[in-house]
């Protein structure tokens, strides 16, 4: 049984894999050593991987190392089953690499665009030969909503959940539609441009806002909310002996 811990900017996921298959995922807005201790008491974990895009909890990491012999902390020195063409691999987000690995597991031999719609929206390209060449980063839906509130005098803070018309009929819906559809049209633009350059392009959409945005996207895409977790599990297998 493999344990994958993916610490994001706003939430931490703890996922169990058996024989390469995802069994379940738990979500923790607050994560630390106490959560790890309780989790390991109730799960028979043979190997584990920890990945983060923020500052980790040192006590939690120490506990993982102590209780799991086959433990791997994923960073830019880890072995991965794809080539990395990024010029600064030490600054490349672990989630972006993991998503690329997860995508190539499912769709090798084609050019892949991975759109990860979370706190930020990342657009990453993997060649048909399996090389991560790079990508772009833009503000996500929540970040856009928050920025419009914080950098203006009167615009209210609006939550992403709620009515999402094509054209806003109130200040609240105008802000929400502007943020969400701005991301949607941005995604559509990337898909159109990269398809013109790479006719074999296959597009994955993942991240916390994937399902919300997928309903508005007209281009052909494949939605996989667990793409990063799948990639992290493959990276674990690449780096530890179980």
Major β-sheet strand ordering: 6-9-8-7-10-11
Quaternary form: single chain
Report the order of strands and helices: EEEHEHEEHEEEHHEHEH
What about the largest sheet?
6 strands, mixed
- Compute the gyration radius: what is it? 19 Å
Shape: globular
Distinct helical segment count? 7
Number of strands: 11
Mean pLDDT metric: 95
Distance between the termini: 10 Å
Topology, element by element:
Elements: E1 2-7, E2 12-18, E3 21-28, H1 33-42, E4 47-52, H2 58-67, E5 70-73, E6 83-84, H3 94-106, E7 112-117, E8 120-126, E9 131-139, H4 141-150, H5 171-197, E10 202-206, H6 210-214, E11 222-223, H7 227-239
Parallel strand pairs: 1-4, 4-5, 6-9, 7-10, 10-11
Antiparallel strand pairs: 1-2, 2-3, 7-8, 8-9
Helix pairs in contact: 1-2, 3-7, 4-5
Features:
alpha/beta, 7 helices, globular, 11 strands, six-stranded mixed sheet, 36% helix, 242 residues, five-stranded mixed sheet
Give a brief outline of the structure.
With 242 residues, this protein is α/β, with parallel strands linked by helices. 36% of the residues lie in helices and 26% in strands.
